[in-house]
Write a structure and sequence with these properties.
Elements: E1 5-8, H1 14-23, H2 31-34, E2 38-43, E3 46-56, E4 59-67, H3 76-89, E5 95-100, E6 113-115, H4 129-133, E7 139-144
Parallel strand pairs: 4-5
Antiparallel strand pairs: 1-2, 2-3, 3-4, 5-7, 6-7
Length: about 140
Amino acid sequence: MKDFLLRRARTTDLDAVCALLTASKLPVEGVAEALGNFVVAEGNFSIVGAVGLELYGRYALLRSAVVAPSWQGYGVGRALVGEALSKARSTEIRTVFLLTTTAENYFPSFGFIRIERDDVPAELQESPELKGACPSTATVMRLEL
């Protein structure tokens, strides 16, 4: 078992978060602007995972869920997503959306369901991920809180 802690992302975490995303071939567009709503996992004195929320009124986009390969399988991803959803539940957010090209079978365990891209509210269409950072073939999912 590997020990890690979750904490709110700091400005100084930006490079480490972007490096994890780049290594996993995930988009970094919009990360800097949303970093205040990111949670990171820290293990062995380095960032080993991250997930963020982009907020759009009563909606949020869960984005940039990433775990370093050597830390996968230790519950880091589940803890990160759980923490992000907990934070969303404690606000005015009522619905969380996400786009994924690789984890459409993972997120239903949190209650996410697959939807059509056209069913995403107009407010979220301003997200860098929906404006092209994620491919148009990405699976879109929704969770009602």
